[in-house]
Write a structure and sequence with these properties.
Order of helices and strands: HHHHHH
Structural class: mainly alpha
Radius of gyration: 22 Å
Shape: elongated
Number of helices: 6
Number of domains: 1
Helix content: over 70%
Largest sheet: none
Length: 175
């Protein structure tokens, strides 16, 4: 009887481990071995979720404030600062996206399609800032504002669509 009980306990332990799978630390170690990389200690699923939420809330709000109150093609410094701000946020998001993909958690914006669309919009906006910094000229300042507004609005719409989907899934995104 004891032998049957021991076999049963051992088999249930194996089944339970298979059912619950790896936690984050286990996934991290597997990814580091598989891809021959070492992830920085600060990279965690929770950190990456925070980076995504910060981008969808405070970074978007900051970019909107700049566009509404301070956008002026005459002054290159603020254009450069805002472009650098966007590039830095994208770098952070990409680092997290890579970590999440390799640890099989998900993508930084939950799926590949949404993540790629948002990254492409960030590239488009930062590219437009780079062109304005280099001296691209439009017929008027209003035309430059219109082009920039169109690209920023596309980014905002994609972020807002993602937030709406998250709300519908019960993941409330605010800060």
């Amino acid at each position: 009887m004891k032998n049957i009980l021991i076999v049963f306990v051992i088999s249930m332990t194996v089944v339970a481990q298979a059912a619950f799978g790896c936690d984050e630390q286990c996934q991290r170690e597997k990814a580091q071995a598989k891809y021959n990389v070492t992830f920085p200690s600060y990279l965690t699923w929770k950190y990456c979720e925070g980076i995504a939420v910060d981008f969808m809330t405070s970074a978007v709000r900051s970019l909107d404030s700049y566009r509404t109150n301070h956008f002026n093609t005459k002054y290159k410094g603020p254009l450069k600062n805002t472009r650098n701000f966007l590039v830095q946020r994208k770098d952070w998001l990409q680092e997290c996206d890579d970590y999440l993909k390799k640890t099989k958690k998900s993508r930084v914006f939950n799926d590949t399609k949404t993540t790629q669309k948002i990254f492409a919009s960030i590239d488009s906006v930062s590219g437009e800032f780079a062109a304005l910094i280099k001296g691209s000229s439009y017929a008027s300042s209003d035309e430059a504002q219109a082009v920039m507004n169109e690209k920023i609005n596309t980014l905002f719409k994609q972020v807002e669509d993602h937030k709406t989907i998250m709300h519908l899934k019960g993941k409330y995104v605010v800060r």
